[in-house]
Design goal:
25% strand; eight-stranded mixed beta sheet; 30% helix; alpha/beta
């Protein structure tokens, strides 16, 4: 098993007024295969990706993984959000994050609340995205089937089969993505990655190996 280097830092994004906190993992040695940006839901933060081992798993798979705390949440509480919760943020927000952290083209992992950030970025800057991994994100109803069909980025749609509201609703909308596969996590709820980290990590690394 290769060793993993874990670091923390802050990144300045113009619209936020205050810096955003992030955690980063990367292989200690060897080449980095790809860059991954992990977002989070409203009750969570980058710490969850550290605690369940996703940051370590990605680094062991040869990825540079960055998990940010979204504006107003976690250790980015003093940062100003570019949009109200549930409203679409400007697509340029995550573009700025990726530029500041040198992450493009990026694999974007987006659970729940973070859909308000990831979806505008996907639709406005798909050339900067290597792959998209939505995990029952919000705001999927704000785009049409035709818009989803225009996205050529490979996507892995993940949700827990106990998430009968947001999970199923987001699946219906995201299923119009032109290049997608679906992982249904049995017995898992809305934060399905927390309920079953092993299945989450295997599904994610299997998908990354196809890119």
């Amino acid at each position: 098993m290769s060793a993993v280097k874990l670091t923390e830092g802050n990144v300045n994004v113009e619209s936020c007024k205050s810096p955003l906190f992030y955690r980063q993992s990367e292989p200690s040695t060897g080449e980095v295969r790809m860059s991954v940006l992990l977002l989070h839901g409203i009750r969570f933060s980058s710490e969850n990706w550290l605690d369940i081992g996703t940051l370590e798993t990605l680094a062991r798979a040869g990825c540079r993984a960055v998990a940010i705390d979204l504006p107003g949440l976690g250790r980015s509480k003093s940062a100003e959000a570019p949009a109200a919760v549930g409203e679409l943020a400007p697509g340029g927000f995550l573009k700025d994050v990726c530029e500041q952290l040198d992450l493009s083209p990026v694999v974007l992992i987006s659970p729940s609340l973070s859909g308000m950030y990831s979806l505008p970025f996907l639709f406005q800057h798909q050339d900067l995205i290597r792959a998209y991994v939505p995990v029952a994100p919000i705001c999927t109803e704000k785009f049409t089937a035709e818009q989803y069909q225009s996205i050529k980025v490979p996507a892995l749609i993940v949700y827990g089969d106990q998430d009968t509201q947001l999970g199923e609703a987001s699946l219906r909308n995201l299923s119009s993505l032109s290049r997608h596969s679906v992982v249904v996590m049995r017995g898992a709820g809305h934060p399905c990655y927390l309920d079953d980290p092993d299945t989450w990590h295997k599904s994610l690394t299997d998908f990354l190996n196809t890119l």
